[in-house]
Amino acid sequence: MTRPHQTYTLPKEALTLKQKVGQLFMPAVFINDTEEEVRKMEKLIREHHVGSICFFHSRASAATNFEGKKKVVHNEKSYDRLLELITRYQKSASVPLLIAIDAEWGLAMRIENTPQYPYAITLGALPNNNDLIYKVGKAIGDDCKLAGVHWNLAPVVDINNNPENPVIGYRSFGDDKKSVLEKAKAFINGMATSGTLNSIKHFPGHGDTATDSHLGLPVIDKSMEELLENELYPFQKLIEHGVDSIMVGHLLLPQLDANNPATTSTKIISDILRKQLGFDGVVISDALNMHAVSKMYPEKGKLESAAFDAGMDVLCFSEHVEEGIVEILTNAPEKRIQESFDRLWALKRKVFSENHDPKQPPIDISSALNLRIAEQSITELYGDPSAVKKLKTSHFLNVSVGSGRKNNFSEKISLHFDSKMVDLNAAADSSEDTAVLSIFPPAVKPKNKFGLDEKTLANIYKLVAEKNTLIYLFGNPYVLDILKLKPSSNVVVVYQDFPAFQDVAFEHFMDNVEAKGSLPIQLKTFRP
Fold first, then answer.
1. Which terminal residue of the chain, N or C, has fewer Cβ atoms less than 10 Å from its own Cβ?
2. Which of 186, 188, 100 is nearest to 144 (CA)?
3. How confident is the model over 427-439, as pLDDT tens digits?
4. Whole-prediction pTM value?
């Protein structure tokens, strides 16, 4: 597959006002689209001078799959398809497109069989080791650049101070504002080294909510003083540090603007973000098809126009490009259009005027980096350390709760201790009084209790209540809040189920690896 190397040049002739407005639109494109859908997008780009596109996996995934009922089809060749589509869409554009993607933990967030790096919450567990986060940012940026992607809509700088948050959670570096800032800065610096654009999100802060903005409109009922003290802190400091763009979330902040969500709020975008915080870079919307705002504007193009009027520069995941262009041309002053165009054009100059000769990174860079992160992030939450010592010197049950992933951890324990793996049902009824329980949650998001069914949870409750149990959790640490753990419970948080993390977990169990990580969030119920 030919790589879409960035040998594009910006036109020297001036664009018309209509072309300039078209440049402000970023429709979504999908790896698994049909040929008919691809041709429609090529036509849209060509006829309406679209300025950027954002890649998603399929129309059944990401922000379009609101109810989770559509089947997501696995595509082994999605990376090749990405390269093919980037080339085709660039050929359709009269002005080179900025290619964007959400690659918070690598291209793997959207593209199969590409390097995956740890979630932000795992990086948040690293103890003052921002060099590793810098390397993650650079590696992700290098992967993007090699594929022909210029703009990584990352990192998330929301402070996840609500344990029940259904959509941020594991995507945040944690609940401490200073830690979030420093880790985000390291990630951004790494990406910058690769020449990849960034976008910090979701302004003015999506952490303290229990509502998923894909489905409804979250309300953050806080004063400006409270926001400056916490939610806005990383945004303000990163603006001072320098960022390419800021993504505005679909959030209602009634103490700042009782009538409009941030997406369409002049008070929040133009007054606070622009004037008060002094940001003069590109402001991009969160996906405009999300129900938090899309249901408020049933007439095509009206949402795009309202967001633009409020101060937005780039309209991400607009489903009504043609109508939006007409609305903006009809209602917006030429001076206002020029301001947004100039900001976007500055990003294009930054991308297309630099020497773009992406180098193939070492094949094993992700596995080597993931191993180092696993060694530094593994976290002990011991309520009774003496019980752990007792368990390791006794005959114990080797219990696994899987999600279809290969459990190297339990297999190694089985081989080393001649301890056959048993399922949770058998373990709960066993007369043995000690158990090592490895949990691989089926889902990383808290919806439907992380995919753990009621019978599985009931057996975990019984095991924890009746036996000396040491839990190794290969997933989102917020899972611990639903396990009915005791103050004396012992847990090792491994965060990821990658082979490298499982290997490190086994070495930790064997007392060959010291747990250096620190839980980056406060749990709601389990506090050993």
1. N
2. 100
3. 888 888 999 999 9
4. 0.95
